[in-house]
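Worked Example 4.2. Consider the chain below.
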Amino acid sequence: MTAYDDMALRREMVATCRRMNDSGINQGTAGNLSVRNPRGFLITPTSLPYDRMEPEDLVQMAFDGTYEGRHRPSSEWRFHRDIQQARPDINVVLHCHSVYATTLACHHKPIPSFHYMTGIAGGTTIRCARYATFGTQGLSDAAIEALEDRLACLLGQHGQISLGKTPAAALALAIEVETLSRLYVQALTLGEPPILSDEEMARVLQQMKNMSYGQAPDLEGVNDTARPKPAA
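Applying the procedure from the previous section yields the following structure tokens:
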């Protein structure tokens, strides 16, 4: 990676961190972000507010746990490293303490398929990882377990993690997880909401997969899809 490319990525990471706070899913120095690069991964430093963070403040880490830079890495660097190693399908790990997701996490309550958009995380539920002390290998192990075949999870009595191929994708997913968490908390005030069946969620997930590949959703095969009008 050239110095120019590295700096472009660092600027994108800082901008994403600031958007985390601007969107309301993170506060103060909570939360962290990592992005895979050819030397391992870049990660946000510990205890540095995002509004004071500059591209040069990001920490370069290798998968053996060594780091370079003028700051120490985030105290959560272990789960960033371990998720990046375990999940070659993603490049970005985003962690935040968004209010409603953390509310559910404090009750160790996963998000079921009460709404079809639960499928955006890759399955019929958004799991909640068992509790482990922050910054420990135990938390890393719990997160990887909860993220199996998923792009997001809650962390017991802690917060949420969202994954993506780009910082923008991981941030968009984290915001969606927070929105679903808020909807679920509000739905629970009326009682346990009905849950969509696994069969329906399988259809939802196929629709989402089709759309991610740029195809129009057409599960019934009737070819009644939106299409450009032919030129005159």
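The radius of gyration is 19 Å. DSSP finds six helices and eight strands in the chain. Compare this with Example 4.1 before moving on.
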